[in-house]
Amino acid sequence: MANIQVPTKLLLKKMKPGQMLSIRIYNSRQKRLQTSFVIKDFAKNIEDISNSHIADARCYLDVYGNAASLIYLIGFGKNNKHLYDYWFNYHSKSINKHELEDLSHQDTVEYLLVDHKNNMINVINIPNILVEAAPQYIKIAKHKHWTSSEFDELQANVMKDFKTCRGIWDYITKNDV
Fold first, then answer.
1. Would you list the DSSP string of 10-21?
2. CA 168 to CA 71: how far, in whole Å?
3. Quick check: 7 pLDDT over 90?
4. DSSP H or E stretch at residue 170
5. Which member of 57, 93, 95, 126 has the lowest number of beta carbons within 10 Å of its beta carbon?
6. Above 80 in pLDDT, residue 177?
7. What is the average per-residue pLDDT within 46-70?
8. Pick from 153, 161, 163: nearest CA to 67
9. DSSP-derived pairing of the beta strands 32-41 and 108-115
10. Residue 164: how many CB atoms within 10 A of its CB?
11. What is the mean pLDDT of the chain?
12. How far is residue 75's CA from residue 29's CA, in Å, rounded to a whole number?
């Protein structure tokens, strides 16, 4: 953990248990900025993730109407017991577009595991499956412009079709998307 700059406590306080956020941090070992994900959950879940040594990721690019999203899912433990999602919205004011650029080139992604009391417990590094998907999404997003309400409509449409993020996961796995 000494090689990365820990996100601010303010960010961690805003997160809810079970949530995953992308952030851009400085990696002193590699001497560059990188995109990482913070996962905040209850201490028992964070402990399970840290001890399982099993991680699997999926991504799904969806276009609905004028909006597009890159949905990123990461599962930890046997049968991906602990599943987290992140929906990239290229035109959101809160996303740093450099995060997607980073993910187009990073070989691995670091996950900063934080318990519900905002204590950094562990950092897990896994292969980056977004290397191909992030540039595809950027290419689509640069040619489309949508509002936050159009993006919300996309999310509602996806969730209507799949019901849960586990449904999206199962669809990706079954259809080798």
1. HHHHHPPTTEEE
2. 9
3. no
4. helix 165-175
5. 93
6. no
7. 92
8. 153
9. parallel
10. 11
11. 89
12. 27
- What are 2's two structure tokens? 């000494």
Rounded distance between C-alpha atoms, residue 138 and residue 141, angstroms = 5
As a whole number, mean pLDDT of residues 94-109 equals: 86
Q: Are 81 and 48 in contact (CB under 8 A)?
A: yes
What is the 3-class SS of 64-128, one letter each residue?
A: ECCEEEEEEEEEECHHHCEEEEEEECCCCCCCCHHHHHHHCCCCEEEEEEEECCCCEEEEEEEEC
> Which residues are paired to 70 by β-bridges?
61, 88
Please report, as a single letter, which amino acid is at residue 103: L
* pLDDT at site 52: 86
Question: Quick one: average pLDDT of 125-140?
Answer: 94
Sign, CA dihedral 160-39-53-27, equals positive
Element (H, E) at 39: strand 32-41
% of the chain beyond a pLDDT of 70: 93
Domain ranges of the chain: 15-170
pTM: predicted TM-score of the whole model, two decimal places: 0.89
Which tokens hold the place of 164?
A: 């849960």
